[in-house]
Amino acid sequence: MNILSLLKIAGKALLRNKMRAFLTMLGIIIGISSVIAMVSLGQSSSQSINNQISSMGTNLIMVMRGNMRRGGVSMGNTNMQTLTVKDVDAIRTQAGNVSVVSPVVSASGQLVNGSKNWVGSIQGGNSDLLSIRMYKLASGINFTEDDVRNSAKVCVVGKTVVNNLFETGENPIGKMIRFNKIPMKIIGVLESRGQNQWGQDQDDIVVMPYTTVMKRILAITYIHQIVASARSESVADAATDEIEAILQTTHKLKVGQDNDFEVRTQAEMLEMMTSVTGFLTVLLAAIASISLIVGGIGIMNIMYVTVTERIKEIGLRMSIGAKNRDILLQFLCESVILSLIGGIIGILFGLMISYFASMGLSWPFVISLPSVGLSFLVCVATGIFFGWYPAKKAASLDPIAALRHE
Amino acid sequence: MNEIIKIEKLERIFRVGSDEVHALRGVSFTIFSGEFVSIMGTSGSGKSTLLNIMGCLDRPTSGEYYIDQTAVSLRTKDELSTLRNRKIGFVFQSYNLLPRTSALENVELPLLYNNTISNRERRERAIRALEQVGLQDRMTHQPNQLSGGQQQRVAIARALVNEPVILLADEATGNLDTRTSYEIMNLFQHLNREGITIAFVTHESDIADFTGRTILLRDGRVVKDTAVETKSAKAALEALPGSENQ
């Protein structure tokens, strides 16, 4: 008996009782669609977190000043003066996996424009700082390396600063504002980025050359932080190691001595967040797969009823030459068709649920191909596993007794 | 003449608990090609057991059984299935048609279990078999749209479609009224004249009268095996009251 006629026979048998076939499928549909929806939504949520963190720069590497310890007591890192512009230069020239690097010095204070004022924070960096932090200019220009050399009194400002210092519709480019009595010229405005996931306003920022901040505002010779971009996400770890090694050399640290700095990557943050959502995804999928098992038992139940109902048909088929194997395959085929069609509907239904849910939550819609493929296999396996016993029962019937069955 | 069925000292013993039931106690006979044989007996005479063995559904405890010169006794289950599929056509008392399935597809069924037959040939042979039983205009009808006699004709077409060496009919007229029974017997006689060998199990002697030879079983033994003068089913049909009006 070839596979085509087997499928035809099984299909016809199912069509003889459409309502029952549909109800049996319903169990599988619900099981598969909940698994698909849960996995897909779990991945959507981790993708959404991923996107947010990535928007801060996936390749971002931050070097902070280390904690100072005196007699075993941590003194915090605010007074450490270990990071310098020399470290930045060393990283730029020696770290092969680093594409751009910038020092960061921050200050905060009163920003004043005429009668308006705003308490804002200033970030000093070189001309690469904007690209490392993944800020884009909405209008105007970035400051140049010449501005950095000359400690020019120019700055690029974020939307929040503009909104608070200027009238609506006023063009801030070229205007002078004062920061702690020092006048500076606005040469660029940044594109709005809104809040980050911790609720911090990313548009409340003023960026200017680090030399200006160090010499004219803070009068310091050290820097607060170094930020760098790895050439790609894949070499971020290598870049981190490079930076660590370079700084150990420039800081003349002996082997075994604690670092007086700390290197962090965005990837570490990402890992932590995704491990949480990954765990949730697995948990939800596990709960959803329980309903799949229930659906499978539904198939088994119906197949048992079907076999009992059709004992006479089985006897007839045997009497006209069906081998035990043919009967086994026919009933197995029926349960696999049920679970497979149920599975396909379930996959489509599950994707639909997760599509609308992720639209509603404004998460990215992720189709997880492995989970779709796996569900498909699970469907077939469910059909075979739960169809096996009833089919075996049918195939082992005695043709004489089956024919005489009333 | 070819020996279609050859049975030698056939015994069949059933074990029921510690008891042994002898259903057949040494049955021997031969059916030749073109014969129309009725096998008669009361219930308990062993005729069902004999039919099951002749139909390759059961195996004898001892003795030899040849169908179309093929020894059956030592075959495996799968080989018996193939023998049934190629050599035997069954007609049952209760028709055993698949519900919600057209007459044509019911007739095609045995050929589905034969890989050597193409889809096209299967369809053609099923149509031919339905024509043989006079149901060429009922091919797409489902069993519940057919009368009892028509359903039995579909079942006969199904038994003919694999071109068997013998038709085995088990009380094939048992569920039918007299007129329809005679019509079915007329069909069997017609098929027999075309050269088809038929073994017909029945307990009704007036039905057995339409065959050419009667084998009578009692308590698992053949007590009578005689050629009888075949009564024409067509004549019997015409003699029924009310026939003139049709």
How would you characterize this protein structure?
Chain A contains 13 helices and 12 strands. Chain A is of the alpha+beta class and about 400 residues long. In chain A, strands 4-5-10-7-9-8 form a 6-stranded mixed beta barrel. In chain A, helix 9 (about 265-310) packs parallel to helix 12 (about 370-395). Chain B is built from 8 helices and 10 strands. Helices cover about 35% and strands about 30% of the residues of chain B. The N and C termini of chain B lie far apart (about 40 Å). In chain B, helix 3 crosses helix 4 (about 120-130). In chain B, a hairpin with a 2-residue loop joins strand 1 and strand 2 (about 20-30). The interface between A and B is medium-sized, with 23 and 27 residues.
Count of individual helical segments of chain B: 8
Low-confidence stretches of chain B: none
Mean pLDDT of chain B: 92
Encode the helix/strand succession of chain B as letters.
EEEHEEHEHHHEHEHEEH
